[in-house]
Specification:
Elements lengths: L8 H5 L23 H26 L1 H19 L4 E5 L2 H15 L4 E4 L1 H8 L8 E5 L6 H6 L9 E5 L18 E5 L6 H5 L6 H13 L4 H4 L2 H12 L33 E2 L15 H10 L7 E4 L2 E3 L1 H8 L8 H6 L6 E2 L4 E4 L4 H8 L8 E5 L7 E6 L8
Parallel strand pairs: 1-2, 1-3, 3-4, 4-5, 10-11
Antiparallel strand pairs: 6-12, 7-8, 8-9, 11-12
């Protein structure tokens, strides 16, 4: 008998074009469960993530605070878009991938949204956040260093929605210092530890519940988001129509104030962060962790991420940004120093310049390659030991 190696047209027409039902007997030939270890593991992962979603569903069915927060979050996004703003989605690592997916979902609905990478934001992308926007932060721990470091630079008018494992805003560092009306927590906990349950430290159930909750947030009743972007575009187009310029009065004369004035020489004192605005980190136990430093920076936005450990040790923003991208958030300062990580800059290493020094002169002094990232201490002219404030060497070139 010759075996056919092709399916005839008549035979093909008899095949179903839809997937088989999950209860199809053809898929139930194994009576005692899978014998292959990889299949068993895969089924366990699927079961664990299904249980995590069931746990999330029960939370939002029974917890009034979670329900209220979800309602507030939908209303806040609606207000932002109606006022011409947008939803800015932000996260790091796997959470960043979820944020990008949610951004794409919003744009698919015709509602303007954008993704912001927190590290890139600190290097110049913060301008995309406008006062009428809403910021969505995704972090299972609720204390991702890059996100914590971003908070001092967020406009005070921008509400923050946080998807984290925390059940109450008071325990979530991302919202600890937000006014209650400007911070919204959307809890996304998991029912059991991922590493203990599945055996790997990579995010599994936590990313599943975060993605599911994000989809739930962006899929409200149709009337909530319908036509929002269209309304915002109409207002924007009306506002962009320029008014006709008024003709100058023939007798109008140029005032003295409008005449060109000689430019003043910019000085480093104009660029410093005053020392009285730079906080000193402290803890009840006396042991200072990286997390404590980050939280101190958040509480004092006027310091622009400068933090003091002591009167003779300061942490510049450049070092704080570098540390925020590490996994050492719970490590104390002595352990960080033992690893050789860039950390504090001691008084002996400050580049001390009088406050009357011009920016051009300061640039020449720090233009050597070894000066990159150095700390400039601005001292009183009449008292060289009295420090007025600090700036980083790179700040001297801002505005060029």
């Amino acid at each position: 008998m010759i075996k056919k190696d092709r399916v005839t047209r008549d035979e093909l027409s008899l095949l179903s074009l839809t997937p088989p039902d999950v209860l199809d007997p053809a898929l139930s030939t194994v009576k005692d469960g899978p014998t292959d270890a990889s299949v068993s593991t895969a089924i366990h992962v699927i079961s664990t993530e299904r249980a995590a979603l069931a746990h999330l569903e029960q939370l939002y069915e029974t917890n009034p605070l979670a329900q209220e927060s979800l309602t507030r979050a939908v209303s806040q996004i609606t207000r932002s878009v109606r006022s011409g703003g947008k939803l800015v989605c932000c996260g790091v690592g796997k959470s960043g991938k979820i944020a990008q997916k949610l951004e794409a979902t919003m744009n698919s609905l015709g509602i303007y949204s954008t993704f912001l990478h927190p590290t890139e934001a600190l290097h110049g992308d913060l301008g995309m956040i406008r006062p009428q926007d809403t910021l969505l932060l995704i972090s299972f721990s609720g204390r991702t260093p890059e996100l914590l470091l971003l908070l001092p630079y967020i406009p005070s008018t921008v509400p923050i929605i946080a998807i984290t494992s925390h059940l109450h805003p008071s325990t979530c560092p991302l919202l600890s210092f937000q006014p209650s009306d400007m911070g919204i927590l959307l809890p996304a906990p998991i029912h059991e530890d991922e590493e203990l349950s599945i055996g790997v430290s990579a995010p599994t159930s936590s990313t599943t519940v975060a993605l599911s909750l994000g989809d739930a947030l962006l899929s409200p009743p149709p009337n909530d988001y319908t036509h929002l972007q269209e309304e915002a575009q109409q207002r924007s187009s009306k506002a962009s129509i320029p008014a006709a310029p008024s003709a100058p009065h023939p007798t109008q004369q140029q005032s003295v104030a409008s005449l060109p004035q000689p430019e003043e020489t910019p000085r480093i004192v104009d660029k410093l962060v005053p020392i009285d605005q730079i906080p000193t980190v402290s803890t009840p136990t006396g042991t200072v962790r990286l997390l404590d430093i980050l939280l101190t920076a958040i509480q004092h936005p006027a310091a622009k991420s400068w933090v003091q450990l002591s009167p003779s040790e300061i942490i510049p923003p450049r070092h704080l940004r570098a540390l925020s991208q590490s996994t050492y958030v719970d490590m104390d300062t002595s352990a960080l120093a033992s690893l050789g990580l860039p950390f504090t800059v001691s008084r002996d290493d400050w580049l001390r310049l009088p406050s009357s020094t011009s920016v051009d002169d300061a640039r020449r002094l720090v233009s050597g390659s070894t000066a990159a990232g150095s700390v400039v201490a601005v001292m009183q002219d009449e008292n060289p030991d009295a420090c007025l404030g600090f700036l980083e060497a790179d700040d001297l070139w801002d505005g060029l």
